[in-house]
Amino acid sequence: MKLDVIRNSHLGVLRDRGGVTIIELIVSLGVIGLLLALLLPAVQQAREAARRARCLSNLHQVGLATQSYVAQHGVFPANWGLPDFYFDGPGPLRGDMKEYSVFTLLLPHLDEPALFQAINFNLGITDPYWRPGRFGRSGLEANATVMSATLGVLLCPSDPAPLARRTGSSNYRANNGTDRSYISRDGPFLSTGGRPVRPASIRDGLSHTVAFSEKLRARPDRGRLDPRVHMLLADLGPGDSNDQWLAECANQPAETARYRAGAGLTWFISSLAQTNYNHLQEPNSPIPDCVPGGGLATPFGLFGARSNHPGGVHAAMCDGSARFVAQTIGRPVWRALGSRDGGEAINDGSY
Q1: How far apart are the first and last CA of the chain?
Q2: Separation of alpha carbons 265 and 170, rounded Å
Q3: pLDDT computed for residue 240 by the predictor
Q4: Cis peptide leading into 132, omega within 30 of 0?
Q5: Residue 328 has what pLDDT?
Q6: Which of 9, 24, 109, 348 is most buried, judged by most C-beta within 10 A?
């Protein structure tokens, strides 16, 4: 008798227990959605912080490799023309150009001695994207295997570009100074006349002169055009000043604007399109990268530092240190950091 009472009481409890109502389910889903909405930004911020730290570490490694090169050779690596190019007076360059990038010379100091030994520096190379034709073709063919190598230290994890799977691309660029020419005149990697720069020639101070910064890699031609990564082909007056060029690039009519892709496709070649940039506009500028005319065989352009990091870009200084530079930095200060001997007074609180 007692057993039946106990059994019946349990059955009553089971019968009285109701299911989850629609309202309770909606409230539960709403709470879960609210929690996800609060957590996802925090997760994204944490991931970007990790990517940003990795990018800073990469540039620091490049900066230390540069210091190692300077300690061995007494000069900064040249970002164009070595080992044996020369000018014949004011005229054109004689022979094949040798547009070997800074990174080719830094390979032994980036733990890549085998790649360095595999390069045939005796042959001329030019950027085929900008100078199609026979010049430099032999060097490109002979060094094709090295050019295709992926160097993880030159890739920013915050830039998962569609072309990121393409081997040999790079996110980091050598400072070309405040000159819009492909041959630097006041940057740390080449002086007027094509001579390598000694540390003593960086009179503004090694810690106040940028050596490398970031740049987003190119996207394919198809799809939405992005002025941050595509190059604007603009009608630029050859005699206009740098600031006039910037104004002209900023005011190109959108309906007639023409762009090209192809920047940052290789770490091997030194050109404004591939491994160099200049300090004519502040980081992450809304003014697009800009080249004159048809964009072919041009030695000039406005190529600014750009990244996907919120608020600015990373930069490696000539003393080997690396830091984050806010995109709100004043243009005069950014230009001063780009020149090696401008004599500007810069304090660390200004950037």
Answers
A1: 87
A2: 7
A3: 87
A4: no
A5: 95
A6: 109
CA dist., res. 44 & res. 51, Å (int): 10
Kind of pairing between the strands at 231-234 and 290-292: parallel
Q: Which residue has the tokens 């003014």?
A: 287
Cβ burial of 22 (10 Å; 0-12, 13-18, 19+) is exposed
**Residue 82 gets which letter from DSSP?**
T
Report the alpha-carbon distance of residue 164 to residue 155 in Å, rounded: 9
Enter the pTM of the model: 0.82
How wide is the angle at C-alpha 216 spanned by C-alphas 213 and 219, nearest 5°? Answer: 160
Token duo for residue 141: 């063919």
Task: Determine contact, residues 175/212, Cβ cutoff 8 Å.
Answer: yes
Let me know if 131 is exposed, middle or buried by CB neighbors in 10 A (0-12, 13-18, 19+).
Answer: middle
Q: Are 297 and 99 in contact (CB under 8 A)?
A: no
Sheet holding 172-175, edge to edge: 276-277, 172-175, 210-214, 312-317, 322-326
Q: Give the Å distances, CA to CA, from 10 to 7, 19, 20.
A: 5, 17, 20
Backbone angles phi, psi at 249, to 5 degrees: -70, -35
Beta bridge partners of 50: none
Q: How far apart are CA 220 and CA 225, in angstroms?
A: 9
Residues in the chain, pLDDT under 50: 1-14, 83-96, 164, 296-297
- DSSP assignment of 184-220, as one string? -SSSSS--TTSPPPPGGG-TT-GGGSEEEEE-PPPPP
